[in-house]
Write a structure and sequence with these properties.
With 175 residues, the protein is of the alpha+beta class. It has one domain: Alpha-Beta Complex (Peptide Deformylase), CATH 3.90.45.10. The protein contains three helices and seven strands, in the order αβββββββαα. The chain has helices at 30-46, 132-145, 156-172; strands at 51-53, 63-66, 77-87, 91-96, 106-111, 113-119, 125-131. β6 (113-119) and β7 (125-131) form a beta hairpin. The structure holds nickel (II) ion (NI). Nickel (II) ion (NI) is lined by residues 98-100, 140, 144.
């Protein structure tokens, strides 16, 4: 490892912080959150990934960064204290992965469309209505704030299979 590299380390499952409920970002968290956001984007882009939640870098705050990189251009989204305020009855199934479960993928079924209320990095209250990949990504990242991983949406059998495979792969990599 390069000692000069100060990229935030992403926690790998199973890790107790990934199973914990994060607390809301409050008025006193401004400085920490402002410092954390660019570092979370940096870690996410380097991984590379399309979403990262603060608990994945060991910070138990309700903070998420997302960038689906539409047309290969950066389009960063910051969500402070995001909340799903509406979810469609219609479901959609997509293959998901997670930076905390590197190399592991599975089909996950979730509401096809969601409306999310949140604050942006400037503290302005916003709403996003999403379908497709963004809807899945928002739900996946907000799950992280409640200690839920995509594998928690799978059968116990599939979840155990993925966790065993991940543990084996991490052992082989010496991690
Ligand atoms: Ni994830």
């Amino acid at each position: 490892m390069d000692p000069e590299d100060d990229t935030l380390a992403i926690l790998i499952a199973p890790h107790p912080t990934l199973k914990a409920r994060a607390r809301p970002v409050g008025a006193g968290d401004g400085e920490q959150v402002r410092a954390l956001i660019p570092r979370m984007f940096d870690a996410m882009y380097k991984a590379p990934g399309i979403g990262l939640a603060a608990p994945q870098v060991g910070v138990k705050l309700r903070l998420v960064v997302i960038d689906l990189m539409p047309d290969d251009a950066r389009k960063p989204i910051v969500l402070v204290n995001p909340e799903i305020i509406n979810a469609s009855e219609e479901l959609a199934t997509r293959e998901e992965g997670c930076l905390s479960l590197p190399g592991q993928y599975a089909d996950v079924t979730r509401p096809a469309r969601v409306k999310v209320r949140h604050h942006d990095e400037a503290g302005i209250r916003r709403e996003i209505e999403a379908d497709g990949l963004l809807a899945a990504c928002l739900q996946h990242e907000i799950d992280h704030l409640d200690g839920v991983l995509f594998t928690d949406h799978l059968s116990v059998l599939k979840r155990n299979m993925i966790m065993r495979r991940l543990a084996k792969e991490m052992r082989l990599k010496g991690k």
